[in-house]
Design brief:
Elements: E1 5-11, E2 16-22, H1 27-38, E3 45-50, E4 56-59, E5 77-82, H2 106-111, H3 116-123, E6 148-151, E7 160-168, E8 178-183, E9 193-194, E10 197-198, E11 207-211, E12 215-217, H4 227-230
Parallel strand pairs: 1-5
Antiparallel strand pairs: 1-2, 3-4, 3-5, 6-7, 6-12, 7-8, 8-11, 9-10
Length: 232
């Protein structure tokens, strides 16, 4: 089984560090931890996941969801924005014009062994990845297009069912085989496209991309979800 612990970079207006988190914690629990790291109050935090190129690939918008729901992986970056810096600790550090700055030359930084640059060089991440190396084998996923499926849910009594519309690699995570699903109900996150690239077509909020281990294929008939019960 793969580890549920990921090592990511945490970046905020005043801080940058490398941290380890369990994919089973919720976004709300993550914010509690990040308040100690960044100084940004929980209610002011707006967190996004960025890839090695600095592109935003997910917004942690639901405090009740677990980190694994958003597909967070090792070496990605959690970018924490302060939505109200005037009321937070980070707001007090914004004006550094009167602070004597510590400067490090490019050569001195390159010699450090505890920097992000050194980490990327050791693990051959990003521009340091060798094109001559044999690419990692892509996992084999035996899920047919058009199959009916059911997705794991943390909510008791909720069955997320739909139809498989895509199986393969994507530009937003090339080393993983994703399963694109069209849900029976509008409980998804997209319309079959991500970052402007389309993988299949469905109605808005009916589409979602998941790892294969979260998808069960079988004879799952369409179930109507009663949203009125959730609002009582």
């Amino acid at each position: 089984m793969s580890s549920s612990i990921v090592s990511v970079f945490v970046v905020s207006p005043d801080t940058r560090s490398e941290r380890r988190f369990d994919l089973h914690i919720t976004v709300e629990q993550l914010k509690t931890k990040l308040e100690l790291v960044t100084g940004i109050p929980i209610q002011n935090q707006c967190i996004s996941i960025q890839n090695d190129g600095g592109e935003t690939i997910a917004q942690l918008s639901d405090d009740t969801k677990q980190l694994g729901f958003y597909g967070l992986t090792t070496s990605q970056t959690l970018n924490v924005i302060d939505t109200n810096p005037a009321t937070s600790f980070t707001g007090q550090l914004s004006d550094v014009s009167q602070v004597e700055k510590f400067e490090l030359s490019d050569d001195a930084y390159a010699k450090r062994t505890d920097s992000v640059l050194a980490y990327k060089q050791r693990h051959k991440v990003g521009r340091f990845a060798s094109s001559s190396e044999t690419p990692a084998p892509v996992e084999k996923v035996d899920i047919p297009i058009g199959a009916r499926c059911q997705v794991e849910s943390d909510e008791e009594g909720l069955h997320k069912r739909g139809t498989v519309r895509f199986v393969g690699q994507t530009s937003f995570a090339k080393t993983v085989v994703w399963v694109g699903i069209e849900y029976d109900e509008p409980i998804g996150r997209n319309d079959g496209s991500v970052q402007g690239e389309r993988y299949f077509t469905c109605r808005p909020n009916y589409g979602v991309f998941l790892r294969s281990d979260r998808v069960r294929v079988g004879d799952f008939p369409i179930e109507e979800i009663n949203f009125d019960d959730e609002e009582m």
